[in-house]
Design a protein that fits this description.
A hairpin with a 5-residue loop joins β1 and β2. This protein has one domain. The chain has a three-stranded antiparallel beta sheet with strand order 1-2-3, covered by helices on one side. The protein is an alpha+beta fold. The chain is built from four helices and three strands, in the order αβββααα.
Length: 127
């Protein structure tokens, strides 16, 4: 599997992706998309040791800890007055993001089972 394969799967699922390499050889994939309400939402998952399964594990861990009601309340507290309709919309947004991240992890896991190791370096690491 290639880095570009991870990006293609993410784009197919509606996510924009940026990749950052770290000095220890791991990569950080920043997944971004708009919520149903139009706000930018993002999360980052680390790929360690060239194992695509590690990024899947990170996404599943994120999905498991994402509580739409709690995050909606925290999100809206910082945005201003909390109205019932804004709170319900924020919960729907967070629940949708959780579902979309889960679907991303599912598609990546199907590919990860085919090939367990990330075979190539991104183009910018070849220079």
């Amino acid at each position: 599997m290639l880095h570009s394969d991870i990006i293609k799967i993410a784009v197919k699922n509606g996510w924009a992706v940026s990749v950052t390499a770290s000095a220890d050889g791991s990569y950080y994939f920043d997944f971004q998309r708009r919520t149903l309400g139009g706000l930018l939402f993002s999360f980052t998952a680390e790929l360690c040791g060239g194992r695509v399964g590690s990024i899947v594990d990170e996404i599943i861990s994120f999905v498991d800890t994402l509580d739409p009601e709690r995050y909606a309340a925290e999100w809206l507290e910082s945005a201003g007055p909390l109205t019932p309709s804004r709170y319900c919309q924020a919960i729907a947004d967070m629940d949708d993001m959780r579902t979309r991240a889960w679907l991303l992890a599912f598609d990546l896991s199907a590919e990860a089972e085919k090939e367990r190791i990330l075979f190539d370096l991104p183009w910018y690491r070849l220079n």
